[in-house]
């Protein structure tokens, strides 16, 4: 069957429609948070703030920028490992994230920053919008190379919506703590993406098998993504934590977990390979599992050695996943997971949820101090009588809610994406930039076909 | 005509001369700002500052570093898209920026930070020096691949000088607000560069046509530049705004404008191409126009939806510019604009100036608060009776002044650069690293000539 | 002699052993600093801190992240210039740094943050751990391509230990100031690495001569490393300086020194080459010497023009070192220095120590203010009677101690690394990823052998 991948009318239509909708909705709903509004001086006096430096901007902006880099360069370049899909990896990630953050500002705004009919946005909203889009970037990893940009924009629209609902249930209804998003971002995003790719199963994908690998320099480009994710993850997990010790602690715990994770990833990458050589796929991905798995617990008193243990385990789980579980998922469950997000986000996300629940349940006044305990878990207002062990239970519930939302939502959205007129590529054109991009000549006539001159440029 | 591109005596001479001059001038004039001086503790007590955190360093240093990355990695890598000019793009950008920031510290210092015969520099001066050099990087984009490093150093010397004069007229004489530099940086830098490239018109440039394109990996390198510019632009536009809400607001507005711009760039890139495929040139450049166009207005109460609208329009204008205007400029006006700065900086810069003028003119006490209005536009001292609508008029005047300075200055500097002994390359050697760099062998014997074995390495 | 480079049991064993040891030691010793502990609210009240923003996190976290990028992306990518060793450069740097920061937290903690049997860690410890690992990354540069990952992990273990001892002697016993580590990081790290590579001398290394060069794109990857090191060096030199003016000043001085250094590097790169063309090796490395050489003095009142002079000289010294000294070191002293760390770190590090000693000795109350002088050199407690000139003497002593520790330590560790079962590559397999990594096919069959089809893939 010949697929129609001609984008000329469909893609512009969706982009412009989506963006006009954003403008209208922003016009109706979005205004500045008082800390970003020109009236702030008055506000400041009322709050008895002595200095401009107490504007939330200075608490969170450096972390925001780090998170921003993770979403656009981190995820974007991590996915450039495919030899012929670098433009799609970086470019489509750019497109969906740029749309997603706008829609997330609205969706999350209605749930969390809605006052007198207006959504008031400040730097924390920007971070949360980036977080929300992070879950879409994760899902994108599962279907990388197999969808059209129109499909990706539709996916983003729905996934951001469901993300916001799930986040609202967890944070506002269950009063769950999840500052680094082990549950809301990673568990939800990964199982959502895995369900979508399951629905979009392509039985004949081996037709583009030759393009699913990397080339030398594409692996180096991917390492740019890996390192930025790895380095800035402490900012990710601490970006929306409480001011002061909580942000400080979240950064330290994440730093420790990630460091430990690198060692076990290297160990198992070598151990599980007959020739004992390291596999770039593991180094690019499994080294990050430690950051995922302390997403919930990092701001708690997980302690540095606790973080090392979590990172230690996740490096192993993730690498083993790449070697043994991934082929099994593809052959038996028909889950074609291009980037291996099951290993990097799904399993470590679940572990992160569990670590968070256990750490919360184990919290004591001795460890946190009376005030510290209340502040860490926000045991105030309606929740002032909640105990750590009850909190642990709610945290655990949050995992299941996220999982359920991801599976149900992924199934529905996957079905929507199967609609025939969305321009997805044929099996033999998957993982191929040439379908949606003007590709410079060298790629077609040179590099790629060098070692097999019988291959001809693919025409879409 | 054989060109003499031998740099051995000329380039070292200019570098050393320029640098010795810097040392002498710094020795005579440059000292630390009180906030960076060891006497600060005493200063602090006099100012009743209660904490070290109120040092301006902590308000601005994270933004400074982001701006720094934009200048050196952002602009540098954005220009690596040319297949054989990566060293020149990154390397010459590095050279001219490193010299330019020193000269800018002096020039801007004499105009703005001169006290008792000394220029006192702090973190804000570093940001402004980077800003000033940004305008040179923009101009460099127009002449990329067609000039010698000696020409670039001369260009930098003059352009920084003129930038500082223009900035002084706008900021100090006209009392114009332009924190993100739509006028001072983008309009000035772009029209300056376009005028220079017009003067340096090469009628036979098609002789190096084959090198004006990209190869697959050079396009990915360029995306590193694009993304860092895109991600850090909120820092750029907020870096020198007033402490507190103004910085906060500028970052939010820029974030919104840029997000919107990506969607319309993608839409029009696909729409304007017969095959409906996306063009990397548009993604690399037009997505950034939204940041340029809120350079003046971002710190004002432009509002998030206002920013979305600006970004929306600029994505369209910029992409249309690449497709229709650029060939016209080259064939009819003889403006050979290597990187398309007319589309990314010139037109969006003008739009940015207009947006700023309109936003200023529309400012009211209701929207800003009484105090907020005074603080936002600095209606104090000599300007305490200026009204928003008058301010709008002055803002508009700033656009014309910048334009006039750019055209006149560019014409003069272009003429200077035509002097015959500056080592510019022959037409057939343009866009070719081999002229000024030791290039590793693979490039000459391998990659580049692969698809046409009849080509021979160019010897200069 | 056939070398056994099979890593399957050895590498996992070392990784797991090292990491389990870390977990146990962290469990026994490492806890949160009060500023990162949940009891902080109480602490804060006792210290009369009025705002959360006075948590040390906000003073240092942005600088920490910049330093983090320098260690992992900066050093990692700087070393990717080799055409076939990109995976090893980025990947092994990642591995050794991830282990090293953990061990450094312990070693430095015992010396500097040990209270009541516990090491209390906060953001400053994270920075110092990164600093310590920086010295290992430097040493790695000398032996790049010639060692196994097992050897690198052993090297890291010992070098971090010795670093901490040396640092303790300098900072605590001699009361030396060295915030940017000209002595503790660069002098120590470089001479340590040079001694190790001397001990590991390979007389037949010319067998892998063809792989010691770069290819076009590997030089661009290396420029990513260069630029991040260059841009973030102001953060590096100011990261652990005193709050307020000292951090501010250190950033400005470093900015100036680096800018100046670029100009003289370009000048001498062109001057020392017959054809007058620029050499990427110089641009990638010598431009950074200015940052190394103000590592000690940047936080002092070195002044901007003083910094320019230091950068000016170091650009020259470093470039001349690459052209004349490096071949001499290899042929006469048998020091095979892959990355030229002698030119980038060793000589500029020594210069930096001297500059620091002179600047300290020249300090006066007039320049610093009474309070400023005490605060800048911490002339309190046991040191309240120390004069600037005495301080200068101790600073000079610090250089010699660092040098002695480096030479003695390097000799011992070099000898340890010669043990035969550590899996180092044969001479003809040096600078070759294929020995320790799964390398995608293109590299073996395509790119690399393109210009000489008689070459065959190397099998280890």
Question: Which helices and strands appear, and what pairs or packs with what?
Answer:
The structure is a homotrimer of 460-residue chains.
Chain A: H1 10-29, E1 30-32, H2 40-46, H3 56-78, H4 86-112, E2 114-115, E3 118-121, H5 123-143, H6 149-173, H7 182-199, H8 216-238, H9 245-271, H10 280-285, H11 289-293, H12 304-331, H13 341-361, H14 365-368, H15 370-377, H16 388-417, H17 441-445
Parallel strand pairs in A: 1-3
Antiparallel strand pairs in A: 2-3
What does this structure look like?
3 copies of one chain form a homotrimer. Helices cover 65% and strands 2% of the residues of chain A. Chain A is mostly helical. Chain A has one domain: Ammonium transporter AmtB like domains (Ammonium transporter fold). A 3-stranded mixed sheet of chain A has the order 1-3-2. The radius of gyration of chain A is 22 Å and the shape is globular. The two termini of chain A are 12 Å apart. The interface between A and C is large, with 77 and 77 residues.
